[in-house]
Structures are given as structure tokens and as C-alpha cells.
Amino acid sequence: MLHDHSTLNLDELRNLPTCELPDRYHLQTDPGNGCAGDPPGYPTYFTRSVYTPAGNPPTRGPEQVISHDGVLYVTGSSGDWGKGETFDTVHARSHALMRRLYVSLPFDHPRVQAWIAQTMRHQASMYIDDEGLAENPEYGRPARIVFPTPDYKLHHFHDGSLKKRYGRPGSNSPSSRRSCLRCSWAGPLSKTRIQDLGEGLPIHVCPHCGGKDLMVIR
Fold first, then answer.
1. What is the 3-state secondary structure (H, E, C) of the chain?
2. Contact predicate 204/177, CB 8 Å
3. pLDDT tens digits, the chain, 218 residues: what are they?
4. Cβ proximity of 193 and 185 under 8 Å
5. Phi, psi of 96 (to 5 degrees)
6. Phi, psi of 74 (to 5 degrees)
7. Cα dihedral angle (130, 132, 136, 140), rounded to 10 degrees?
8. Do residues 218 and 148 touch, judged by C-beta distance below 8 A?
């Protein structure tokens, strides 16, 4: 799906300034900048950095582009850093541009469901601590904690607090149990319902509320 531009708003894209690379300049080979964790087809996956003959970002002019139909549309430039600009203001403007360029996929789309499942696996045992950590958020993001699971298995948090339920070692295989993030149901994989989303992407559905936001219980 690397070159599927169906999630790009082409009208917005064509409103951006265009450029041609100076002699001996080149583009990043594999598209994608700051796109880790972004939803499928998000414009950050299509951005490509511009490099000078020495392999450095240019000090003047376009620094990042999206290539479509042989045209380079500028999504980032050295001119973005005007007088008084900060990382936060430039990042916010760049984020707003990416949002305008994005045509989101339906929630039930196989790519979206696969992304949700992968995100749940990646974020397993990671939680936002609203009260316990005193340090300032980094880049405006709330602090995260990775809850330890040494000789016991964490079942789930509930009621938005750090109350927890544990099972003894070996009592439940993490790969065979799921927890629903919508209603906090927790149970064996055999109790879930399988829904085929097409393209070979079956998904487990909560038997209690029908939710699809299931995560592996650690």
C-alpha cells in the first residue's frame, strides 16, 4: 500500500507550492517521516526529505515534499521557521497541514482494524498516570508508565484507576486471553466471536458488548 494515494486529499495537495530539485540534490529513498503509530494512509507516510549533494538537509528552501504524478509538493521548508517561531508552533502548523491532507478510512476498513490491533499490542501494559508522576510532560504529552508483570499476569485496570486484578503464574496464557477496552470484559479467547473483515483479516469481538477493541491480557 506504499503508493496508494487514495487517503490523500488531492485538492488540498495541489494547493501547496511545488518545487524542482536543484542539480545533484536528491530525495529520501523510502517515504515516511515521523509516521510511527499514525493511522493507515496518513500523509506523513508519503513525505520525503530533501538532501543536498553532501547528504544534508538544505539550509534554504524546501526540506520535505510529497511526490504525486511526478510533481513535488512542498510540505516543509526552511522558511517555516520565521522570527519568534518555536518547535511547538512549527509542529502544530505541520500537524494541521497533515490533517487537511488526510482522507481517513472507515472504522471497519481492514487496514484500520489491523492498525488498531497492532497498536493495542504495541501499547500493552502502558498506561497514562494522571496523578502519580510529578515531572512536566515531555513535548506536551502526558507521562506513560509501563506496568511491571514479573511473577504474575496483569488482567486489567478498571474505573480509570490503578486498581488491578492478578492471576497466579501459569493460570492463564497471555496469548489465549483478551480484555475489552470498552466494557472491561476479560476472558478466554474461546469465548470471543470471530468476525471476518475480508482480505484475510479476522478479528475477535467482545461477547459482552460487541466491541472490537480487544487487547492481549498480560
1. CCCCHHHECHHHHHCCCEECCCCCCEECCCCCCCCCCCCCCCHHHHEEEEECCCCCCCCCCEEEEEEECCEEEEEEEHHHCCCCCCHHHHHHHHHHHHHHHECCCCCCCHHHHHHHHHHHHHCCCEEECCCCCCCCCECCECCEEECCCCCCEEEEECCCCCCEEEECCCCCCHHHEEEECCCCCEEEHHHCEEEECCCCCEEEECCCCCCCCEEECC
2. no
3. 457 899 999 999 999 999 999 999 999 998 999 898 899 999 999 999 999 999 999 989 999 999 999 999 999 998 888 888 888 888 899 999 999 999 999 999 999 999 998 888 877 766 665 555 555 555 555 555 555 554 444 444 444 444 444 333 333 444 455 666 666 666 665 566 666 555 555 566 777 776 665 555 54
4. no
5. -65, -40
6. -80, 120
7. -20
8. no
Domain boundaries along the sequence of the chain: 5-101, 110-123+149-216
Global pTM value: 0.61
Cell of 88: 511547538
The amino acid sitting at 18 is: T
Distance CA 196, CA 210 (A): 14
